Amino acid sequence: MTARDIALWIYTNYPKECAAKQERSKNITTEAALIQQLVAEIGAHRPQLFKAYNQIRTTEDRPRLYYWTDQSEQQQVEKTESLQRDKNSLPAEPFLQLLEAHLYPRLGQFLSIDSELYTQRIDEKRSSNKRGPHGNHWLYPDLVAFEDLTRHWASSIIKNCVTEVRARRFRLWSFEVKILLNRSNVREAYFQTVSNSSWAHFAYLAANEIEGPETLKELRILNALHGVGLIRIDKNDPSESEILIPARERLEIDWTNCDRLASENTDFSSVIQRVWEFHRTGSIKADEWTC
Asked: The pTM is what?
């Protein structure tokens, strides 16, 4: 429920108390003003609510959603990961009835609209080097994106000149996707992103749900140290997704690391192949990029 949903529920179920509150305040003269006051007080008292009731949780998207759960934060993470292993089972809580695979095309759509990027899914299962359960999680990102820095240039002379002087014509982006981020898993997810995205110009951790203000605060601190950004994915309307924390750009690609990834994974190798073709021809085949 949003804060407004809760305020309306209070107004409907506690009319006498609401009437008394309105009488005590000279500023609350209408029903709408009373409801707006309740909304403001719910938001202002969030820290006290969290301390009084561990079961109350909120998301960090807008509008912020409040919900009640008896699961600990660690249990929520474990349930999410369990769902990844068993795609035929659906957990009871609505926001967990989702797979990471469902988020890849939604993130790709947002990146295409917001930044004109071409995205490619990197499937770690296509790696030749098997490192045991989850061994490749820390090596390969979920998505890689290509940005054509010359896409709005009108002059072919400029494009040819940039090619000849070997100036930069593109940037590569790397993304690690999660369904849920909370205080229990935020550092592990962040450093997984640091590990598997250190070769790219931009690195982002993207999630459908970001739970609690402390989680977002931790991500801002980590961003200041390591430069990995944060994207909130709107699963219902990808165009409403947003970059909450911008990533810090690296000026150079780590080609040694890219060589390792490309030599072991066919998806990553195909990305590098397309980068090479772009340098040769200056053109991009959009239908070759899929997520």
From this structure: 0.69
